[in-house]
Amino acid sequence: MPAPLRIGVVGAGWIATDHVFVLRKLGHDVVAVCDIDVARAAEVAPEGARTYTDWEELLDREELDAVWVSTPPLHHRAPAVAALENGVPVYLEKPIARTLEDARAIVETAEGTGVVCAIGYQWHATEALEKLRDALGGQPVAYLWGVSVGATAARPWFLDRKGGGGNLLERGSHQLDLQRAVAGDVASVQVAASPVLLAQSELDELGDIEDSATMLLRFESGAVGTVLLAWTRQGQPGSYSLDVLAPEATLHVKLDPAFTLSGQVGDERIKETMTVHPFERSVMRFLEAVEAGDPSRVFCTPRDALGTLATALACERSLLEGGRAIELAQVLGG
Ligand SMILES: NC(=O)c1ccc[n+]([C@@H]2O[C@H](COP(=O)([O-])OP(=O)(O)OC[C@H]3O[C@@H](n4cnc5c(N)ncnc54)[C@H](O)[C@@H]3O)[C@@H](O)[C@H]2O)c1
Fold first, then answer.
1. What are phi and psi of 153, to 5 degrees?
2. Separation of CA 182 from chain center
3. What CATH number does residue 235 fall under?
4. How far is the CA of 144 from the centre of ligand 1 (A)?
5. Does residue 10 line the site of ligand 1, with CB under 6 A?
6. What's the CA gap between 217 and 227, in Å, rounded?
7. Contact 122 CB / ligand 1 (< 6 Å)
8. Closest CA to 76 of 328, 295, 296, 309
9. Does residue 94 sit in the same domain as residue 158?
10. pTM summary value
11. pLDDT tens by residue, the chain, 334 residues
12. What domain range is 91 assigned to?
């Protein structure tokens, strides 16, 4: 068993709690936690860990083997870039950033320094993705449809489009990332959203974001994909899945909470259940990459996540411009 690593955490909210749980379960030491809200830092910090309200101070004072950046998307760039420049590997929660400018700075720093950096799109880490690729065996993908329907927590930055990119970026980008991992880069997108509120209909303060939307993706390969996305009220049943059609394959991946791959390839029926949750698998692979000093081992690289962000930003532009088709080149070109 490798020696425990010394981990720092920046941003001590919902997802940081899950990360600290997994890191401790894997036998690593979370030695320092930072949040601008000291009470949150104290709540997430394991016994004996130091707390900070300024991540620069945390990076200055602590000897770390890796840092987790789990702040809201507008606050990813500064701590991620600083840690990488100091030679500290970074597990950066998805999306890579809110803006392309921030994302490009993170990619350039990660690639320029050669320090390990993973982006926390955990569906990219499911064994089901590897098995799906094996099942396809190089066949061209014709059609994909992803479903992401369910409840989630209403954090203030999530309700604010400028802060979180709305449902499209915060939740829909998990599906965009997964479909890109199956079918490659997206050439153009179109989006329609419903004005009828679902989860937000029970909130005292509304955000300026959509609760439900359909994204239509045209891939460079010729494949066509859709993402059916809805944020529903707490207590309503959720549904998370991806279906993929190729000439000789009809495949269904059940996502969260249990991961399975089922369907048919040629005449053969398949059904497999995955054994490790991808959230944990993504973390474990990052830690292996840190041990090996090999940035290419992570499941979702900063460059992968930059492509996913560009796709989500194209979707956002389509949504805000009445659903017209947006070429990725229009977004990437500035
Ligand atoms: N992988 C997943 O499934 C998943 C799930 C939820 C959230 N996320 C991602 O994780 C990130 C955090 O989301 P969350 O739901 O935990 O949000 P959250 O609002 O619960 O927590 C974020 C925390 O960051 C703190 N913070 C803000 N600016 C800071 C700064 N400059 N320095 C230190 N702390 C700062 C806030 O005070 C807050 O406590 C987001 O990027 C989100 O998209 C990923």
1. -75, 140
2. 15
3. 3.30.360.10
4. 30
5. yes
6. 8
7. yes
8. 309
9. no
10. 0.98
11. 668 999 999 999 999 999 999 999 999 999 999 999 999 999 999 999 999 999 999 999 999 999 999 999 999 999 999 999 999 999 999 999 999 999 999 999 999 999 999 999 999 999 999 999 999 999 999 999 999 999 999 999 999 999 999 999 999 999 999 999 999 999 999 999 999 999 999 999 999 999 999 999 999 999 999 999 999 999 999 999 999 999 999 999 999 889 999 999 999 999 999 999 999 999 999 999 999 999 999 999 999 999 999 999 999 999 999 999 999 999 998 5
12. 6-122+280-300
Q: Could you say which DSSP state residue 269 is in? A: E
Which of 9, 10, 15 is the pocket-test mutation for ligand 1 (most atoms within 8 Å of CB)? 15
Q: Ligand 1 pocket check: which of 71, 102, 240 to mutate, most ligand atoms within 8 Å of Cβ?
A: 71
Residues 6+ apart with CB under 8 A from 297: 116, 285, 288, 289
What is the tally of structural domains in the chain?
2
Q: Give the Å distance between the CA of 17 and the centre of ligand 1.
A: 10
Q: Is residue 1 part of a domain?
A: no
